[in-house]
Amino acid sequence: MKKEWLEFEKAVAAFIKALDPKANVQHDIKTPDKDTNAPRQRDVWIEGFIAKFIPIKVLISCKRYKRKLNEQDIDHFKGEFESSNANKGVIYSYSGFNKLALEKAMKNGFSCMKLFTNEPPEIPEMLVFNQFFCCKPHIYIELISKNDPENCLIKWNDILQMTITLNNESLQLIDHISQIVNENENQVFKNLRQTLLPKSWSKQLTISEPEIGLKVVLNISELWENYVAKIDAYLINGTYAFENDKFIGSVITPIINLKSSEPGPGWEKIDDKPNSVKNSISIIQRSADIKETILNTFGDMKLIKLS
User: Fold this and answer.
1) Rounded distance between C-alpha atoms, residue 215 and residue 8, angstroms
2) Counting Cβ atoms within 10 Å, is residue 231 exposed (0-12), middle (13-18) or buried (19+)?
3) Are 90 and 156 in the same domain?
4) Which of 16, 34, 170, 202 could bridge 221 with an S-S bond, Cβ 3.0-4.6 Å?
């Protein structure tokens, strides 16, 4: 089994190499000591160019301690840096830094970094991420009133499969309802740039056959349930710089359960909409086969009036 500190060093070197493939990134090499010219071990050594022609050498020290680094650790690195002929010093700490370590490092021009590898952020108060929202639609059809002299409407299928005339064309009511849902969803998505989260909507629909005295009033609505991703459910890959509060890498949201009415344990239902659309991303689960969904949900159910 490979030692954890070695894996940490390799992960840091691989991440730096991925950021700049043109740079010469070497792991666990020896370079001459500035004073004695004797070979000294370096965790990660980078040679590259600024603005394509100014050469730069960077020394990276990787500390995989269970504790945060302190000012004595920075003093130790300072001696290592001054003997290396490097232009820039960087310290990667597995467990972060205490306050005095950060102050000492920054006064000496060292960058303090933390590497995340498929793990939740441990310092959410410093890391600034997009807020992720998951939005799930629920379609409702309500029977407001029914005048049915011949008592032919017993189940929802009896209403949904009625033939109506629309724009001189005959079609089943279920097809017309599907069109209404689809059109309103399209409008909801057009407005998302301004609203961030989809808005619920409702529409009243009247079906009548005067020759037999039949009249049905329905209310069709689509209500959206919104969930926000819990911060401890994020998985992140990347590096965080304490000196300027910047994170470079990727953020993976919690898994969304597409077969359930709720997205899953990594999400928390919210009732209030966020105050700002900045730094926010909405993941919208649009209705699938609207017609099939409605028929499967309502078809064999008996009709119940609201009033």
Assistant:
1) 72
2) middle
3) no
4) 202
- Find how far residue 216's CA is from the centre of its chain: 44
Q: What is the Cα Rg of the chain in Å? A: 31
- What's the predicted TM-score (pTM) here? 0.69
Residue 249 lies in a domain: no
Distance CA 298, CA 303 (A): 9
**Start-to-end CA span in the chain (Å):** 71
Based on the fold, state whether residues 146 and 105 are members of the same structural domain: no
Q: What is the residue whose two structure tokens read 């799930």?
A: 136
Supply the CATH number for residue 64's domain.
3.40.1350.10
Task: Look up residue 278 and give its DSSP letter.
Answer: T
DSSP three-state, residue 187: helix
Please choose, from the candidates 254, 275, 242, the residue with its C-alpha nearest in 3D space to the C-alpha of residue 126. 242
**How many independent structural domains does the chain possess?**
2
**Pairwise CA distance, residues 174 & 295, whole Å:** 8
Domain with 211 in it: 127-232+255-307
Domain boundary among 74, 94, 119: 119
* Coil vs helix vs strand at 159: helix
Whole-angstrom distance, CA of residue 144 vs CA of residue 15: 61
**Which residues pair with residue 88 across a beta bridge?**
58
pLDDT digit string, tens, across residues 181-233: 999 998 988 888 777 788 899 999 999 888 888 999 999 999 999 999 988 88
Looking at the structure, tell me whether residues 70 and 93 fall in a common domain. yes
Q: Does the residue 284 lie in any domain?
A: yes
Tens of pLDDT along 103-146?
Answer: 999 999 999 999 998 888 775 555 666 788 999 898 999 999 99
135 vs 286: CA distance, rounded Å: 8
Residues 137 and 109 reside in one and the same domain: no
| Same domain? 191 vs 290 | yes
Measure the CA–CA gap between 33 and 2, rounded to whole angstroms. 28
